[in-house]
């Protein structure tokens, strides 16, 4: 029994010595995983992996990307973890002086798409529709 404890202690010391301090998590991984599973409603059948923490836009917190994988499908979420490893923030961070939709709208191309109105308009309304859907047809009629 004592030999097992000493071996485990040697492994822990070796791992601590081999992994540089900046690469070691500042949080307890199992506690964080338990909380993330609870908040995200992820069951034990879902594989959860954490990326290395990066600087966060909020002081006192680090940004950690979390990947959840189940049956070949992966979902990635970003959480903020306090530098003392005791708190998380789940949600989006927005800069008040920037357009919060810029990332999404930059991926939409309107080139060679049907349009109505001035091409220089300050607002674009983009509608994804199914022309065989009766409700979508009604919406199209109302938008004209």
Written account of the structure:
The protein has four helices and five strands, in the order ααβββββαα. Strands 1, 2, 3, 4 and 5 form a five-stranded antiparallel beta sheet that branches. The protein starts with a helix and ends with a helix. Helix content is 30%, strand content 20%. It is of the alpha+beta class. The protein has helices at residues 2-18, 29-40, 102-105, 134-143, and strands at 47-50, 54-55, 61-70, 73-82, 88-90. Residues 11-19 have low confidence and may be disordered.
| Helical residue percent band | 25-40%
Distance between the termini: 79 Å
Number of helices: 4
**Main β-sheet: number of strands, strand sense, barrel status?**
5 strands, antiparallel
- Could you give the count of β-strands? 5
How much of the sequence is in beta strands?
15-25%
Instruction: Give the class from helix and strand content and strand pairing.
Output: alpha+beta
CA gyration radius, whole angstroms = 24 Å
